[in-house]
Design a protein that fits this description.
Helix content: 25-40%
Number of strands: 8
CATH topology: Maf protein
Shape: globular
Number of helices: 5
Distance between the termini: 9 Å
CATH class: Alpha Beta
Strand content: 15-25%
Order of helices and strands: EHEHEEHEEEEHH
Structural class: alpha+beta
Number of domains: 1
């Protein structure tokens, strides 16, 4: 079975491939599949945006399509950047700049109020119209600096109390075991196993 994963993010693609590897599912990116469509993510939730992406790409290619929409919610900032995580401060702004901006905005906020979570919603759309979705979270806190060389995006400022380190300091295997995307992919994998 082949699934098109609607992303251009190589980090996400690696995580997806690792989690479904033993199911015998081939995962291709949109680029691999030669798909170039404009996707307008105008949903109000992560799940709505994941479905918009998956539906658009499925319609364009006629293949089973999976998509995720994920981001960071910081409680002290009213849930920001939320569904705008990728576009926060502009899509072309480096994550180092985005990360430092968020850390600065939390200046003076004590540890216990720096709670945050990564959220991941995954949608899988089939050419016959069937749709599956699931949503999972990864709880933590916003740190005071960037740490770690692994991961991508906001991982370097996301402190994971249960591990005593930042998300970007976890190995890919450790991160996949507890992350929002890892949990959501395993939930989606279970749903796929039921119908395959």
């Amino acid at each position: 079975m082949k699934i098109i994963f609607a992303t251009g993010n190589q980090g996400k693609l690696r995580e997806v491939r690792a989690i479904v590897a033993d199911l015998g599912i081939e995962v291709e990116s949109m680029k691999d599949a030669g798909i170039d469509v404009d996707i307008v993510e105008d949903g109000k939730t992560f799940a709505e945006n994941a479905l918009i992406k998956a539906r658009t790409v499925c319609k364009a290619c006629g293949e089973v399509t999976m998509s995720d929409d994920s981001g960071l919610e910081i409680d002290a900032l009213g849930g920001e950047p939320g569904i705008y995580s990728a576009r926060y401060m502009g899509e072309d702004t480096s994550y180092h700049i985005k990360n430092m901006n968020l850390v600065e905005r939390l200046e003076g906020v004590p540890d216990e109020k720096r709670t945050a979570r990564f959220v991941c919603a995954i949608a899988c759309v089939f050419p016959d119209g069937r749709e599956l979705t699931c949503r999972e979270t990864f709880e933590g806190r916003i740190g005071y600096e960037e740490k770690g060389e692994n991961g991508f995006g906001y991982d370097p400022i996301f402190y994971v109390p249960e591990k005593g380190c930042y998300s970007a300091e976890l190995s890919p295997e450790e991160k996949n075991a507890i992350s929002h995307r890892g949990k959501a992919l395993r939930a989606m994998r279970a749903k796929l196993e039921e119908i395959l």
